[in-house]
Predict the 3D structure of the following.
Amino acid sequence: MSKFWGRYCNLKIKFSDDQEITYNENMKITFRIMKRGSVNSSSAKITVYNPSIADADKVLIAKSGEAVIILDAGYKNNFGNIFTGSLMNGNYTKQGAVDMVMELYTRPSIKNENKTLINTTFNRGITNKDYIKQLALQFNWIKKVEIDENIATETFNYDKPVSGKVKDCLDAMKDQYDFDWYLEGYKFIALKTGTKGKNTVTHKINEENGLLGIPIKTDQGTTVKTFINHRIRFNDIIDVDCKYSTLSMGTLDRKYLTNKSANGQFYALKVTHVGDTRGNEWSTEVQGWRSKISK
């Protein structure tokens, strides 16, 4: 465990031949993990400094989707997974005078969901939620399916044939029933954005528990930064309580306010984890959307 401000970082790369490479906070590792409610709008870049040539060779020859990336980060006694996904591609280049860096570009799905096909008929009596679950399980790496109870339930009173890409079928259901779906490692999640469900967690953010800087009031709600918090997920609720805030209005100067206009409860629409095991950055930034939140 590093004594660098008590930070914890563990990066594991698992290959299709069951071999794996592990790095920790004793090496310089940087990352930027951005999560939103869609596979295509989430991304991650992880950089490892001065890995062995053998490690870099193994990563570079791995084909897209053949290696699983697992990144845990946080602090001693308070860390957890901030990203699980697959390797899309990698680079091994020289940076500066002495450093060789391995850059990992990843996606939050274990395999390419665009290649999963279905051709079957579901019998009448199936509900739309059961149908969504059966579609999700066509992604054969999925181990857990979470479907928001706020999605309206409907029973199909007819046989439902389905053929084509599973992703397209899910997108059609998404448009019909107004929900978002995304893949997070081995998990499939379907939720109604901006609604509070049984899996919605509220995170208090203030000066006493990790708030960094001053929250920024935005047109949608707020942008707030805290020490890395692996527990904050898309559509969770952040409860911001800061003495001061700033106002973001295009090119106008930001002004300190005392009316706490960036405070309150917000749904997390975008969660970005940024870290550097040898630098200052070690934070989670949340863009929050203010909406009426039921108690």
In short: The longest strand covers residues 78-95.
